[in-house]
Amino acid sequence: MRQTLPCAPAMDKPHAPPDSARMEWRADGILLTVRRHGESAAIIELFTEAHGRHLGVVPGGASRKLAPLLQPGAQLDATWRARLSDHIGSYKVELVTSRAADAMGDRLSLAGLGAVCALLSFCLPEREAHPALYARTAALLDGLGAERWAEAYLGWELALLDEMGFGLSLDACAVTGTNEDLAFISPRTGRAVSKEGAGDWADRLLPFPRCLSGGPVTGAGDLLDGLKTTGHFLAHHLAPSLGDKPLPAARQRLVDLLVRQAGGSING
């Protein structure tokens, strides 16, 4: 009797995931950077509330139609799609607000816009949500050109340091424990130091302007002292944690402009 051999099972062939398995989300976001990709596309970094700093390709992003709209600081309505979650994916974007166009007539606003976008691109981990920082950033950029914008920017740098794990502790003296007569900040620990606690080390400590602990900015010198302090922790604590890359030059350009407007000097 002839025997029929069983057929070998058919091998599964690789196939693309069904449309239902494709990754997709839609959100408003702040455009941080744009760079050309190929002939006509662009790769953008978008900062969104739920998806953090998220890259994607904009087909036609370098075209005459889209390129003028894709300026750092712009608020975009974006839809991101990809076959798999770890792919760079592509964006379909619509302009909500063009902040760069609004800032063109004001050098301080334009410099501030550049500093905010550059610092976020520099320090934010990719695809890690920072909703509180996103909300604060959107409010800061929406207030570009306001009378006390530079003061708000200083508060934003403090919030950025805190969000990245390098927040300052300014409630009490690191040496004596007192919360009175606080005059300095330790450049190593970011903690406040009183005049008594500083002793002979005072000339090695950073100034402690009251505006860093919620007090009003009392003048240009106070603001610049605050930026000198936040600049130290950005450059000497945050940046080394990211591979010792230098801070974006846009931050120093903003500080230099504030110095010129104040007629003073500062080393950020």
TrEMBL record:
Segments of this protein annotated with the region Disordered: 1-21
Domain DNA replication/recombination mediator RecO N-terminal intervals: 23-98
Compositionally skewed regions (Basic and acidic residues) per UniProt: 12-21
Taxonomy, superkingdom: Bacteria
Sorted UniProt keywords: DNA damage, DNA recombination, DNA repair
Pfam families the record matches: RecO_C, RecO_N
Signal among keywords: no
Record keyword DNA repair present: yes
UniProt family annotation: Belongs to the RecO family.
Protein function: Involved in DNA repair and RecF pathway recombination.
Family annotation (HAMAP family): RecO
PANTHER family attached to this UniProt entry: DNA REPAIR PROTEIN RECO (PTHR33991:SF1)
Protein name per its UniProtKB record: DNA repair protein RecO
High-level lineage: Bacteria, Pseudomonadati, Pseudomonadota, Alphaproteobacteria, Rhodobacterales
Protein encoded by which gene: recO
